[in-house]
Amino acid sequence: MSTLDRLVGGAAFAAAMFIFIYFTTWTFVTPFLDENSSLQKYFLPHEFAIYLPATLLIAGISVIIAFFIKATSQSKNKQKAK
Question: How far apart are CA 43 and CA 52, in angstroms?
């Protein structure tokens, strides 16, 4: 395993852990804090806790479907060429 692979993997893991901790704190801790708490300024409004993951899910599924459609159309074009 190369050093670059380890570096990229470590960065991806660190980013995933940050996102997990941030989202968990945002959804499970901040609703119980006072609105004037200094911690509240680091988080978006609670409505976005639903909007952001839903948007990312729809975007991810759309990319997967687009890739599948492109791959199957290329496969059909190759079969027609034979």
Answer: 13
CA 68 to chain centre: 20
CA–chain centroid gap for 63, Å, is 13
Residues in the chain: 82
Q: pTM score, two decimals?
A: 0.66
38-64 burial: b if 16+ Cβ within 10 Å, else e: eeeeebeeeeebeeeeeeeeeeeeeee
The DSSP code for 37 is: -
Which is it for the CA torsion 32, 34, 36, 39, positive or negative?
Answer: negative
pLDDT in tens, 30-68: 888 888 888 888 898 888 988 999 999 999 999 999 999
- Burial-class residue 26 by CB neighbours within 10 Å (0-12, 13-18, 19+): middle
